[in-house]
Amino acid sequence: MKRRVPYLLSAFVALSACDGATLTLGSDDDGIRDASRPDVRDAKPSPPTPSCPTFTSDDEYALLRGTTCEGQCSDSLTPERDLSMATMLSASLTGGWTFCSGSLGAAVPADTTGIQFYTGCTFFLIEGDAGAVPGTNATYDVVTTDGGYTAGTIILHLSTGDVYASVAASSCLGRAQLTIDGGVIEMSSLVPVATNPAK
């Protein structure tokens, strides 16, 4: 019995060379990839960009903020609010928060006990026993991707440098959490805010 494997292999190589396509073995697609055409798998997504979300009206702000509750440090963070839209994230952060645990570290004064966010991407650090009296003020941006979506990330622009923080919040905004490079800051709401404080 004659072996015909070499002849079959030669015919296969000739056929592959004729159509200009490359056969890729062991892949999860159809195995054929035309080197002359760009592959969408090689496309790079647009990098996230920082921006400051704005609200078209007080009604939009109130709708995004929704029903709020007064929080305690012992309250659960779940169920969590969907913060995938930049405007929702900004509206949800607005208001005063006291730090239950964790801190922004050396980036802020040692007696920082909380943070007060405003629409328009500004915030104040609440220092010492001053209650709602603001201390150091600064700005922040929401990191967005194509289509205005966010992975729940903000950039706090402090005088000592930028601090990136991932944000999570309970559905009624009684509790929130900032995850930064140095750890996790657990927060509870100081004052429920029903209207846009920037007005």
Notes on the structure:
This protein is of the alpha+beta class and 199 residues long. The chain folds into two domains: 5-42, no CATH class; 49-191, Lipocalin (Beta Barrel), CATH 2.40.128. Helices cover 16% and strands 35% of the residues. It has helices at residues 5-19, 58-65, 86-93, and strands at residues 21-23, 32-34, 49-51, 95-101, 112-118, 122-127, 134-144, 153-158, 161-169, 175-180, 183-191. Helix 2 (58-65) crosses helix 3 (86-93). The longest helix is centred in the N-terminal third of the chain and has 15 residues, at 5-19. The protein is globular and about 35 Å long. The chain starts with a helix and ends in an 8-residue tail after the last strand. Mean pLDDT is 76; it is low at 5-18, 21-29 and 37-45.
